[in-house]
Design brief:
6-stranded mixed beta sheet, globular
């Protein structure tokens, strides 16, 4: 599968962090060092999932006839979506399992197409994909152009190199980042958050922070390990999982802001009702809980799937 080459763009910003989008920032390519030190879990809660006729009937007639769904998928790091056996091999992760389980409930086959995180949402409008996955957070800005069907509650967090004295406690105020260099993913809510309130440090009479944007999770972690950045901003579940891998040598600083995460669709897509019903079917029959338990993300479970809920504030 095609890989994008790592790129890092340094952007000097006056600290600013207004939450907008959330996303994994995952892109095709290598996951962070240490993130794939362990093989993927072997249990398969998706295997027993069967088509539910009443839910499948909600699909548009053309999709039922074709029997396939084109899914634009951002594959980057566990537990969301990654390559446990390397690029070119089947991906694994929470997002992969949930999408596969939804497809089975709907009685269709997923035609998964690897794509960089920042390209998927624009491609939905052009009709390239029927649905996008990539830990896309539901934000007010994104809701203007994209529809969402929620399947988990994740959000934004921070991590530092293990043993770092730069930050030792949970980030609750963005002025805690003043004077630091922050690494994050291209096209993510984290990048947007770090640019949205540019004057926060200046208003506090502090030195602005610098933001370095990377197109691969692995590049961000390498920069942290080598001391080229002081802190990383990414998904809560991703950073928590990463910190649990000894080779990563990171410390998770806790949650900053929670966001619903959902399947993404072009605005007005007729697929949303079917996807919501499918996710709710998986919640009802227990498959959903088993998938989250498999990937260690049970704390991010939702009680019911929704279409276009308002952004968490």
């Amino acid at each position: 599968m095609k890989r994008t080459r790592p790129r890092a763009t340094a952007i000097v910003l006056l600290p600013a962090l207004a939450l907008t989008a959330c996303g994994s920032g995952s892109t095709p390519g290598a996951a962070p060092a240490g993130a794939q030190a362990s093989p993927a879990p072997t249990d398969d809660p998706v295997a027993a999932v069967r088509r539910v006729d009443s839910v499948a009937a909600l699909l548009p007639a053309d999709v039922r006839r074709s029997g396939t769904l084109r899914i634009g998928t951002s594959v980057g790091a566990p537990p969301g979506a990654y390559y446990p056996s390397g690029p070119g091999k089947p991906p694994a992760g929470q997002d992969i399992d949930i999408a596969d389980a939804v497809a089975k409930v709907l009685g269709v086959k997923p035609d998964r197409q690897d794509a960089s995180f920042e390209t998927i949402l624009p491609a939905l409008g052009s009709g390239k994909y029927d649905v996008g996955t990539g830990n896309f957070g539901v934000t007010a800005q994104r809701l203007k152009t994209v529809d969402f069907v929620t399947y988990i509650n994740d959000g934004q967090g921070f991590a530092v190199k293990k043993g770092s004295s730069t930050l030792k406690k949970k980030v609750t105020d963005l002025t805690q980042l003043c004077g630091l260099t922050i690494g994050t993913g291209a096209g993510t809510t984290f990048e947007t958050t770090l640019t949205a309130q540019k004057g926060i440090c200046a208003k506090a009479g502090k030195k602005p922070y610098e933001v370095k944007v990377y197109s691969e999770n692995g590049a961000t972690l390498t920069a942290l390990q080598q001391g080229r950045i002081d802190v990383t901003m990414s998904t809560i579940n991703g950073l928590r999982h990463q910190a649990a891998q000894p080779a990563a040598q990171t410390t998770f600083l806790g949650e900053y802001h929670r966001l619903d995460v959902g399947f993404a669709f072009r605005k007005g897509s007729p697929l949303t009702r079917a996807f919501r019903a499918a996710v709710n079917e998986l919640i009802k029959d227990g498959t959903y809980a088993r998938i989250l338990a498999k990937w260690g993300t049970s704390a991010s479970a939702i009680d019911t799937s929704r279409i276009n809920p308002p952004e968490h504030r």
